[in-house]
Amino acid sequence: MKAITYSNYGPPDVLQLRDVEKPVPKDDEVLIKVQAAEATKSDCEMRSFKYSVKWFWLPLRIALGVRKPKRQILGGYFSGEIESIGKDVAHFSAGDQVFGTAQLRLGAYGEYVALPASYTIVAKPSNMSFAEAAAVPLGGLNALHFMGRAKIKAGEKVLINGAGGSIGAYGVQIAKSMGAEVTAVDSGIKEDLLHRIGADHFIDYTKISFASNGRTYDVIFDMVPGSSYTACIKALNPNGRYFSGNPRISVMLRSVYTTRFTNKTAKFAFARETKEELLNRLPRRFLWLNFDVFTPLVTDSTPNLSDRKPTWRSRTEYIRNDYVRHIRRQVKLYKRYKQLNADWVSLSIEHSKLAMKLKYT
Ligand SMILES: NC(=O)c1ccc[n+]([C@@H]2O[C@H](COP(=O)([O-])OP(=O)(O)OC[C@H]3O[C@@H](n4cnc5c(N)ncnc54)[C@H](OP(=O)(O)O)[C@@H]3O)[C@@H](O)[C@H]2O)c1
Questions:
Q1: Which residues neighbour 214 within 8 Å (Cβ) at sequence distance 6 or greater?
Q2: pLDDT at 314
Q3: What's the chain's Rg over C-alpha atoms?
Q4: Pocket-forming residues, ligand 1, beta carbon under 6 Å
Q5: Nearest CA to ligand 1 atom 38
Q6: Do 83 and 144 contact (CB within 8 A), yes or no?
Q7: Residues in Cβ contact with 142 at an 8 Å cutoff, skipping those fewer than 6 apart
């Protein structure tokens, strides 16, 4: 099979398209033919091994390979079709369409990935495309985890820092669905998108710091590494809650102090990304936004984005056939594409900005 591989940590050039052995599922595993995989910030971090939060380096280096990557195919979030199952797998069959996470096994940047059936892999809703589904687990599960822990009450003021990213954009939608008044912080190009998915207010971090405008919040959800802890805590109301998805060691220590000795709470957490959440809690409740999804993952063709005619598919009232926005998105995708430097990866522009509303139950 073909796969995007890397055998050394480093810049985008370390990625290579290669023919590798097709995986064979073990007794408790499923073999999935990958249809789409999300290109995430985490993939870039694991490729370069540059982490803004320095302490991540050691445990991840031990887990992923000290001198070179143990698992040479990146890709943690995918959708696809089950091709075969191991003899002990009872709840999947060949032909099932699924989506989910590959955890630190990774491998979704290959045509096939073999994963334990016990991983967070669930049936893909029939009203989602493969590309849409691949974009859900990272952002959706992480945001759901944090928003759940924040115990948001209707009417509370919630600020999401890094709101235009994979996780933040779901955070906006989930906080909104819980009845919060949401302030989204990100760069100006995402303002329109963030208002469309429910943000009440927007702050462009390239122009102003949200912590310096005198406004305060009941919950701050911070996905940006390197934010000022002092400024975030100052921007909380009494009994306010601060959640960091990228905690530095100093933030972890100070969180304990803040929670114990002040009327504010600071927490850091890592989402568990469970099957139950993906199966039962997310799909029925939230909009799906698609970010940088490549589909199909691997082809031999070299895409020429300037020649590519933009296509646009609309599924709900949330989608507007807005050509200007689409072009902007293309530019951003192209940047991410350049970052991966994968001139052999086919970039599916048509999936770049779909959103759809699944039935609320
Ligand atoms: N705790 C956990 O369980 C967990 C799990 C997964 C990931 N993470 C971490 O969470 C972070 C976010 O992940 P992601 O996948 O959502 O990343 P992402 O898609 O790259 O999103 C990050 C967003 O933050 C914006 N941003 C950058 N600097 C900012 C600033 N100073 N102020 C406000 N916004 C800013 C970025 O905008 P620009 O386009 O302007 O850069 C981007 O929209 C990553 O660092 C990742 O490693 C944590």
A1: none
A2: 27
A3: 20
A4: 40-42, 142, 161-162, 164-168, 185-187, 205, 223-225, 245-246, 270-271
A5: 187
A6: no
A7: 166, 167, 170, 245, 271, 273
Chain centroid, CA 338 distance in Å: 19
Ligand 1 centroid vs 171 CA: distance in angstroms?
12
For the CA of 245, the closest atom of ligand 1 is 1
Between CA 156 and CA 199 the distance in angstroms is 13
Tell me the C-alpha distance between 16 and 23, whole Å: 18
What is the reported pLDDT for 202?
97
In ligand 1, which atom is closest to the CA atom of 190? 43
pTM value?
A: 0.80
Amino acid letter for position 177:
S
88-130 confidence digits (pLDDT tens): 999 999 999 999 999 999 999 999 999 999 999 999 888 778 8
Write down all domains in the chain, each with its CATH number in brackets: 1-135+290-354 (3.90.180.10), 138-268 (3.40.50.720)
Paired tokens of 241: 């809650």
Q: Which two tokens stand for residue 82?
A: 């089950």
**77-91, 105-119, 339-353: which range is least confident on average?**
339-353
Q: What is the DSSP string of 55-77?
A: GGHHHHHHHH-SSS-SS-B---E
The tokens for 345 are 């990866």
Q: What is the pLDDT of residues 2-53, one digit of tens each?
A: 898 999 999 888 888 889 999 999 999 999 999 988 888 888 889 988 888 8
